[in-house]
Amino acid sequence: MANDGDDPDAAFRVRNGDYVVLKRGDVYKSVQIQSKRKVVFEKQWFFLDNAVGQLYGTTFEVESGGTLKPQAPKGTQSASDAKEAGTDNRNIVDDGRSQKLTKDDIESLKEKGLKGQEIIQHLIDNSTTFRDKTEFAQEKYIKKKKKKYESSITILKPTARILALMYHGREWGKVCHLRYDTLAQMLTLGNIRAGSKVIVFETCAGLVLGAVMERLGGYGTVIQMYPGGGPTRAGMESFGFPPHFHDTLYEFPLCKMNALLGGKLDLESKDMDTNHSTSPLTQEMETSSEVPGVKVDEEDRKERERRREMKSQEKKLKMEEKRRKLALAAAQLEGRNADGLVIASRFHPCPVLLGLLKFLSPSRPFVVYCQYREPLIECYTKLREQGGVVNLHLSDSWLRHYQVLPNRTHPVLLMSGGGGYLLTGTTVAMDAPKTSGQPKTEEPSAKRMKLQEAEGSA
């Protein structure tokens, strides 16, 4: 293969170490290209070594031994061409006797090295009812058999849409049932664009975070608010972003949000157990582990002390790195000049939303996703009482796929029951926050003047 400088398609070729998405039919799987690594996908194992250097979007055939071979372009003629077809299916009885080939016969065909298309042709030739079916029924039969017997795999470049389809198709619980069309609305309504500073709080395995970073394109700032001990970024890592994308990403624990808002954030206060390499209890346990009456070698004691010092140094470096990241993220938040807020979490969004809104500049959008409507209704009510936001809008997503084929275009019978709910709005500057017990404000001066004139004339 030519050098990257001579190849105009170098950016679109698969390289070793890249994250890719495998596709077979409507099933997706995200993997990393590694040499001599066995991958299991749809009950089939293979190696991805031969995919290196090929263009993204290439379809491969899985051969014996798990090797991949680029699939040759198929002709326009299908297995059903030049076959007679019936006028209707009313006389066809599905009693399981129409296929002469047994399961053992099909297995023997596979052992002989026959490919999927050849096996399908044998099934067609040994079917007593295939020629009596209508043309549409024949194509449906062939499509079903291709899905079962053809061992072709397509390698795709990860994108927000493809990864959203992957998670929603197989692991929708990890992404809070977030659908790809709802994710697209979140990016649009949140005005995510290059050069903006966005605050993201999500528990969707990093899918929303990765989609935001993809939209920024490496220009701007992303501040990830996370619950618990550390951020979750499995979905974001599946995008395979270049290193300079990660330079725009900051992380800040949600438990320290109130301390930062109150100006009481202490970057030096950490757990004492993490500052010291070994606690007195641990040292006592190590000392007591020595066998009584047996003289401990001086070299062994020095080796243990050296390992203890190395562990202490590693922990100290980790704590310093954690403090550094915390200080950088706090500096980004202290300005309270973020350009957008995106929330998609399994937690109740109301307290998180009310706290994070304080970090946004005026006239900035925010969007909150929730699988259920009731938590967003509570957020809507609280924001109306508190003030500081305008253009509040609560909406739900609805999506239906259509089959578009000649003489048989119709909605797909199976569809998603719901795509969740979105609460959107825009922040505004406010002199003082509203309170429930605040007395009624005075009438406008123009209205007072009119009332005084009316009383005087009376």
TrEMBL record:
**Keywords annotated in UniProt:** Nucleus, tRNA processing
Q: What does this protein do?
A: Substrate-binding subunit of tRNA (adenine-N1-)-methyltransferase, which catalyzes the formation of N1-methyladenine at position 58 (m1A58) in initiator methionyl-tRNA.
> What cellular component GO annotations does this protein have?
nucleus; tRNA (m1A) methyltransferase complex
What domain of life is recorded for the organism?
Answer: Eukaryota
Composition bias (Basic and acidic residues) maps to: 81-97, 295-319, 440-458
Which species?
Denticeps clupeoides
Please classify the protein's predominant subcellular localization into one broad category.
Answer: nucleus
This chain's protein is named tRNA (adenine(58)-N(1))-methyltransferase non-catalytic subunit TRM6
Q: Which GO terms describe its biological process?
A: tRNA methylation
Region (Disordered) residue spans: 66-97, 271-319, 432-458
Task: Tell me the subunit arrangement.
Answer: Heterotetramer.
Could you tell me where the Polar residues compositional bias lies?
275-290
Q: Does the keyword tRNA processing apply?
A: yes
Which family does the record assign?
Answer: Belongs to the TRM6/GCD10 family.
Decide whether keyword tRNA processing is in the record: yes
**Cell compartments where the protein resides:** Nucleus
- Show the InterPro entries listed in the entry: TRM6 (IPR017423)
**Pfam families for the chain:** Gcd10p
